[in-house]
Model the fold of this input.
Amino acid sequence: MPAHLFVYGTLLKKLNLPCYRYIQKVADFVGEAKTHGVLWDLGNYPGLQVDATAGAVMGELFKLKEPLDWHELDAYEDFHPNDSRRKSISAN
Done:
């Protein structure tokens, strides 16, 4: 199990949306954070592909207290990993 979770967009603590409330149950807020990656256009929101050679993406870091239910997060984000309509929206 990963020890930490990086979130951005609608999963941010400051927005306090329903999916954040799920994260709050399984993880403790550590602080603001950033990672490097490419954002992909998934329709109503971006998706992040981590890439150390790409630009910075700002977000928040959480320390996990228990395993995540990735199906719950994917359902909230309406994410389907095999969706061929994805396209990059950030420059490398």
In short: The chain is about 20% helix and 40% strand.
